[in-house]
Amino acid sequence: MIEAxxxxxxxxxxxxxxxxxxxxxxxxxxxAVSQQLAALEQETGHRLVERGAKGVRLTPAGEILxxxxxxxxxQLERAEAELAAYGxxxxxxxxxxxxxTGIALVVAPALARLAASAPxxxxxxxxxxxxxxxxMVLDRQVDVAVAVEYRGAPAADDPRxxxxxxxxxxxxxxxxxxHRLADAxxxxxxxxxxxxxxxPYPGNPCHxxxxxxxxxxxxxxxxxxxxxxxxxxxxxxxxxxxxxxxxRSALHGTDLTGVVVRPVDGVAPTRRVFAAVxxxxxEHPLIRPVLDAxxxxxxx
Length: 300
Description:
CATH class of the largest domain: Alpha Beta
Shape: globular
Distance between the termini: 49 Å
Radius of gyration: 22 Å
CATH superfamily of the largest domain: Periplasmic binding protein-like II
Helix content: 40-55%
Largest sheet: 7 strands, mixed
Number of strands: 11
Structural class: alpha/beta
Strand content: 15-25%
CATH architecture of the largest domain: 3-Layer(aba) Sandwich
CATH topology of the largest domain: D-Maltodextrin-Binding Protein, domain 2
Order of helices and strands: HHHEEHEHEHEEEHEHEEEH
């Protein structure tokens, strides 16, 4: 009989590619992870992982078991949801990880709605970028992630996760007031090909949006300054340190002295935001109201 707990460890090793990283995500020791993998190999009668200089990879037998693992763990999530519903499930804690603007736009308003509609549900919020929050959901560190689409992100049909679309917003061009395009009604991105750029660090989903938009305009942005805080990005632009693309909502409440904000000519680069939970958990009586409240907040 295969233990589900060991399947969860197998998936974590497949996701993180090293025993050490998987152990850290699961709050276990590397030796404990290795012992559980060895026990799983004994249960199945197959070698499931191979260790190399660059980490761990699954064997063909491991890949077969992983394909079933996603379905098994999703079904267990559904079982937990039904049992919680049977026991009423009207009180409990749900942990939500979200990037800062998502907290302001949808998570905080959702909390206010839940306080009135489901007072028994307590929400714990953690600030985390989208590339960090999705692994946190898969590793059961949080229940819900509010994340942004980015290159390398799990696809909407990923068997491990259920996606709920929330909102999409354009990026605007931010240039210094003395910039040659400051008086333009719209800014063609190709006209900024030779400028110095300010933007988020690689790994931040917004970094991908900026780079892809510039690549579509025919150039690679020359990123000289990096910050994941858009207030800092705008301040650097005001100091004539470069130009930037910033999500429109991130400009709300930001001091825009010294810069000009203009829409991008043509199809604007867009940040697409969604909520994600482990597949099968979407109907859990604690999680369903949270997803509904996030959806209502995004539509409002």
